[in-house]
Amino acid sequence: MAKRLTVTPSRCIGCRTCEIACAFSHPVEAPVGPPRPGLTRIRAFPVRPPERGIPVVCLQCDQAACVKVCPTQALQRDDSTGAILVHEERCLRCRACVWACPWGNVGFDGDRTRVYKCDLCGGDPQCARYCPSRALEQLD
Amino acid sequence: MTRRITDAAHLERLRAELQAARDPARKAIAVCAGTGCVAYGSRRLAAAFRDAVTARKLDVEVRATGCHGFCERGPLVVVFPSRIFYQRVQPGDVEEILDRTVAQGEAIDRLLYADPTTGRKYVHEDEVPFYAHQHRLILGFNGKIDPESLDDYIANGGYRALARTLTSLLPEQVIETVTKAGLRGRGGAGFPTGRKWALCRQAIGNPKYVVCNADEGDPGAFMDRSVLEGNPHGVIEGMILGAYAIGAREGYVYVRNEYPLAVERLSLAVAAARARGLLGNNILGRDFSFDIQITRGAGAFVCGEETALIGSVEGNRGQPRFRPPYPAQSGLWGKPTVINNVETWANVPLILDRGADWYAGIGTAGSKGTKIFSLVGKVNNTGLVEVPMGATLRHIVFEIGGGIRDGRAFKAVQTGGPSGGCLPAEKLDLQIDFESLTAAGSMMGSGGMIVMDDRTCMVDVARYFIDFLLEESCGKCVPCREGLTQLSHLLHAITEGRATDATLGALEALAPVVQDASLCALGQTAPNPVLSTIQYFRDEYLAHIRDRRCPAAVCKSLITYSINDQCTGCMVCARQCPEHAITGERKKLHVIDPAKCTRCGICHSVCKFDAVDVR
Amino acid sequence: MIVNINGRDLLASPEETLLQVARRNGIAIPTLCEHAGLEPWGGCRLCVVEMTRGTAGPTRIVPSCLQPAEDGLRVETHTARILRIRAVLLDLLLARAPEARRIQELALAHGVKSTSFVPRVDPDKCILCNICVRACAAVGADALGTAGRGAAGRIALPFGDDASACVGCGACALSCPTGAIEMTDRGSERRIWGRTFQRLPCPACGAPTLTREHAAHLAGRSGLPSESFGMCERCRREQASRQFLDLVGK
């Protein structure tokens, strides 16, 4: 069975390293020069005081609203990682998925005209790898 | 009174009764009521006959029949029992016909057909060369029966094939018979009909449908129209037999909206067949039910393409789709569907009545049976011509068509409508069948045959057909929509004197791409007129391009009208000219101002002295 | 089943088209009217390939996006004849839509720098690929169709001006390969297909979100009330974080 990205908010220190790791692992082409960091799929909302945070990231729901609402089945689960992926060549950019996710975890990149969401980095989620406080872990 | 025909035996009894009640010696007057003759006023003519017969209290039947085919000479009248054939009959001739022909069997000379070259007159219908050289199997009913009378059809053998088939043949045997006969589709593609039916019978899906493609759209073609107007029951019977063969309960006739008379006659025939139980539940008492619905087109040539036709019947935009799947597997509403042309359906009852061997004995090895051609253009005798496959072009154009009118020279014959090509004089001895026409660079198509003389510009012909197809293209695929747009630009450049050799090269480079890449036969065959005229009449193209000259004196941008010394100064042309381009005093040589002249040709047609030259 | 493409024997299943088999095996065939999320259209004809059945059959030119795979087919995707056809098709499209960047790029890739044909008068960027029509139907609004026949065809609303079925979602404009559909967002107004829509303000941050009609449309298709749609995804996330905070406790 695929490992699951597990969130333990009580351990989150609100450092937002996860966001940086996510952005860097999803680079986008730039008009000139090398690729740049892309948009982050994960958000850690700071709670102060005390210095804490609440990470919000796609939960790869078993009965995902985004999958259900897509008219072209462009959102499909990858069985090896358990992640729901955006198949761009099937996507109509209708953004029904963006409106359907109850927690706002599907985004739309207007510059590149692309729907984007957490893809679990192909099975090795970088946010979990770089989280200093084990608020994000990849567990069985 | 219409009583339901309960079974085959009942039908035969009815047939015998009808035949017994018809006295072959009875006097009758058949007036052609096909669209062409109706346009000439044949309805008024028939009414005049009826009034006169009533007034004189004569025992003479006046019958309005379907198109006789010799449309050049309408209104046509055949007097029975002598079968004296009259052409160009007017209401003013009615009394004399009753006095002399009907009462005394005497032929009226001025109403007889005269050969335009020899002047010889022909008295009886089957002697007239136009008919004598034909083999009128399908059109044979047209002159004999009143298309609005089911009784006429039955009395002449109609629905006998259906009765025999339903009582003694299995559906598979019907398919075997049609296959063995070698019937091939008459709509243009020539696909073996039996094979299509077999594929549909085997296909999985329910319900199945039969469809009659009556969208006849080729300019100059009116074979299907005449069959529908003149013998609708022939088509209906064919469809019932086809439905039995494939297991269909419902059939559609998709007829173009521009054929109101065909729609009317077909609707009457369907209603009559229904009333007698030949359509509907348990036909002739058998466990077989079938009915027909008539749908009309909405003015698109492309809807003659079978998948576009299907789309149109379904209520969608009429545009083709890719095959496979073929309609036999997935057609109307995704169900197995047999679509056949009007003439194909009309062949079916004859095959089931007289047998596959009889049918296969007519025609060539690869193309069996007869074909109806609409012979039009610069021939003396225009009309519908039915000949066995294998007849030569020469036979049709000269022996039946009577040669080129006004004594001019044959230049080309265009076969197959806008999908076909133009064949020159060296091809006149070609034996017409599906393969031979395609090999020569043309095609059979639905049977259009346009004859051209030395006053036809072949480049203009190519331009005409490309413009027609461009207008009719559904627009779905790039090679047809954009390719025909550019072929049209190129041809207009040539006919308007703006072309170079590169224009011809561009035509020859683009045309094969349109042939190769188009989605349906409209685009795939659109280059045929262009390519065949370039192949056989290249000099004419070069004259337009290099000399800025139209040898046939047709292309308006390249011709000049001038007045020669035959001019008597009568001033008729000057008065008729819409642009006031002609000046001249009475009895003095007139002059045309080329700057004002629009090349409309009116001066040329009104001049009685051959004084107007067109070059 | 085995399909031979460009000399390679490839496994294929009966539901696949030649294009799908080719792409799955790294063979690139250009397309314009094809969209993986929509039914194949077969109109641009760029994807045509040469196909032969058996060893002695005739070679046919077929659109690979529609031609089903069959056992024993031999397919060539880049013969001189096919490349010639693609070049001419792109040349023709350049004449139709000279400003369309995607066409310019594809044409250049096929050796066509500018059109050799007569350019269309007053051209727009539409190539009548029908992606917008199919996309709109897939989205469920079905507001678009092709009006007019042949070269006079144009993508249009019913009767030319009835935008009542359009929900202003913009899928058409965003899926169009040439950017031929104009959609402008200014403040809370969105203009598309000659109609001005009002985009709802996010109840949390006030930023314009989706049109009222799009929200009603999504409500209808999902069975959820239309109020469920209207909060922007950023604020929905923030709302989620507060919900999780409540769950976790301080």
Write up what this structure looks like.
The complex is a heterotrimer of chains A (140), B (615) and C (250). Chain A is α+β, with helices and mostly antiparallel strands. Chain A is built from four helices and eight strands; from the N terminus they run E-H-E-E-H-E-E-H-E-E-H-E. Chain A has helices at 17-24, 65-69, 96-100, 126-130, and strands spanning 4-7, 43-47, 52-56, 75-77, 84-86, 107-109, 114-116, 136-139. In chain A, strand 2 and strand 3 form a beta hairpin. Chain B has 615 residues and is of the alpha/beta class. Chain B has five domains: 22-144, Glutaredoxin, CATH 3.40.30; 158-360, NADH-ubiquinone oxidoreductase 51kDa subunit (Rossmann fold), CATH 3.40.50; 370-456, Ubiquitin-like (UB roll) (Roll), CATH 3.10.20; 459-546, de novo design (two linked rop proteins); 560-614, Alpha-Beta Plaits (2-Layer Sandwich), CATH 3.30.70.20. Chain B is 40% helix and 14% strand. Chain B is globular, with a radius of gyration of 26 Å. The model of chain B has no long low-confidence stretch (mean pLDDT 95). Chain C has two domains: 2-78, Ubiquitin-like (UB roll), CATH 3.10.20; 131-247, no CATH class. Chain C is 30% helix and 19% strand. Chain C has a five-stranded mixed sheet with strand order 2-1-5-3-4, with helices on both faces. A four-stranded antiparallel sheet of chain C has the order 8-9-10-11. In chain C, helix 2 runs antiparallel to helix 3. Chains in contact: A-C, B-C.
